[in-house]
Amino acid sequence: MIAALANPHVDFLALSPEIALTATIVLVLVADLILPERSTWQTSRIASLGTLVSLAFVAVLENHSAIHGLFGGAYAVDRYALALKGFFLVATYVTILISVDYIGEGDYYEGEFYFLLLCSVLGMTVMASARDLISLFVALETISIPTYVLAGFRKHDRRSNEAAIKYYLIGAISSAVMLYGMSMIFGLTGETKLSAIALKVSALPDSKVLAVAIFLSLLGFAFKVSAVPFHWWAPDTYEGAPTPVTAFLSVASKAGGFVAMLNIIFFGFGGKAGMWWLVIWVLAGLSMTLGNLTALKQTNIVRMLAYSSVAQGGFMLVPFAAYGIAQSHHQTDVARSAFQSVIVYLLVYGAMNLGAFACIIAVARRTKSGEITSFSGLFQHSPVITVLMSIFLASLAGIPPFAGWFAKFTMFRAAINAGGWAGVTIAIVAGVNSVIAAFYYLNVVRNMWFRPAADDAQPVQIPGALRAALVVCTGLVVAVGVYPSIFGDIADVATKTFG
Amino acid sequence: MIALLSDQHASSELTEYYRQYLSVGVFVLASLVMVGAMLGVGYFLRPTRPQDQKYITYESGSDPFGTFGQQNVRYYVYALMFVIFDVEAVFVFPWALNADGASHGGLGWFGFIEIFVFVAILVAGLAYLWRKRLLKWA
Fold first, then answer.
1. CB A29 to CB B107 under 8 A?
2. What's the pTM?
C-alpha cells in the first residue's frame, strides 16, 4: 500500500478568493448549459458577481492581521499578494464590463467567454501568492492557456486565428525556455521553494551555469511581458483578438507575467542581483525605444496601443533594473522603493490602459473601424467620450494631473536613486522616450479635437456597462493623479512586511 | 575506455560535466552498431520474393484506403475526454486507499468531501460535452 496521505491542514479563509472564483467558474459553465440561447448573457452577470464576491473575500483577508503561509511556505497570503489579487480582480471586473455589449452583440459563445476569462483570472490570483517554482509555473500556465483560446475567439476571422496561433506558439516556446531555466535552478539548489532558493543561491559562487539558469528563467518572462526583442507576437495578437480580449491581455495577462517576475526576482534571485540586472536593463532600454519608435508609425489605434504597451512594459522594467542595481550595491532602502515603484506602475497602467480600450470599444461600436483617422472630429458630436479618451491618453503620456505622471515619477525616482552610470543612463533613455510617446498619444488627441468630422458622423452611444467601466477607470486615473498617496500607500503597505 | 578518458584533466569541473555525456555517446554508438548488425545480417540471409500484397499497410485485416491519414477532428474530443478521466483515476485511486476514518489515520470526511468536489467539477465538464452534443458522432 502507498504511504498514507496525511490529512493536510488547509486554511480555507486564506484560500477563499480562489475558492469563490472556482465556484463561479463552475457556475458559469453550468448556467451556460441550463439557460436557453437568448439568455446566455446572464452568464456575464454571474461572472461579474463572482468577481465581486472574490474581491470581498480579499477585503476581509486584508483586515485580518495574521499573515498566512500555506503548504509549507509555497503559497503566501500576505499584504503584497492581497494587493495584487485586488488589482487583478478589479481589472477583471472592468474587463467584464467592457465585454458585455461587445460579446453580446457579436456572434460569440458567451458562456465560454466568461468561463475562460475567469479561469485565466484564477491563475492570476494564484500567481500573486505563488512562492514556489512549481506553483509559479502552474499559475502562469493557468493564466496563459485560456487566453490562447480567447485570442482566437472570433472563430470566422482569419486574423483572429492568426492571433491565437502566434500567441500559442510563443507561449509554448517561452514556457519551455523558462522551465529549462527553472530545472537548472533546481539542479543547482535542490529546492523549488523560492525562500530556500534565495538562501542557497546567495551562498553559491557566481558561475556560468547559474548565470545561464537565471538568464533562461528571466527570458521566459520576457516573452510573456512582450519585452523587445521578444515582442513581435504582441501587435498581431492584439490586433487580431477581439478588442476586450486585447484589453485583458495588455493589462491583466501582462501584469500576471510581471508579478511572476517580481516573485522570482524578489523572493528568489535578490541576492544575486549583480548577475541579472544588466539583462533587465538592456531589455528595458530596448523595449522603451523600439516600442515607442514603432508606435509612431501606426495608423491603427489598437496596433498603436499594442506597441505602446510594449513601451510601457519597458518603463515597468526600469524599476526592476534599478532594484537590481541597488541590491548589488546593498542599498536595501532604494531597492525596496524600486520594488514599490513596479507595483505602483502596474496599478496605474492597468487603470489607464483599460480606460483607453473602453473608449476605443465605445467609438468602434459606431465607426466599425480601428483607424486613428476614425477618431477625427470626435469632439464635435461626442464630447464626453472625447474628454475621457484625452484623459487616458494624457495619463499614458505621463502628463499631470492624471495618474500616469505619478507612475513615471516613481519610476524615474527609482532609476536616479539607484545611481551609477547605469541608473542615470536608463533614466535619460526613459526621459527621451516619454517625449516620443507623448507625440503619438497626443496625435490621437489632436485628431479628436481639431480635425473635421466626416459629414455623416453620428454621436457615439455608450451602453450602461461600458459607462460604468469608464467611470471606474476615470475615477482611478484622476483620483490617483491628484492624490498619488492612494496607490503609493497600497504599494507601501504591500512591501512593508518584507522590510 | 571511459575510465581512461576521465582520468585526464580531472581539474576542471565543467569538463567533468561534459565527460559524463561520453557514456551517452558510447551508448548511442553501441545501439547503432547493434541495430545495424541485426538488420544487416537479416538482409544478407533472408530470401527476397517481392509481391504487391506484401507492401500494403497492415490495418488489422481490413483493406487500407486513402493515402496518408488525416485524422477526423472528432477523435480529438475523445482523446481529451480520455485524458480527463485518466487523470481523475490518478487522483481517485490514492484517495480510495486512504479513505479510512480520520481516527484510523485516513482522510475521513475531509477527503470524502474533497474528492466529491473534485469529481463534481469533472462531471460539470462532462455535462458540458453532452449538452453541446460533442458526444454524438454527427
1. no
2. 0.84
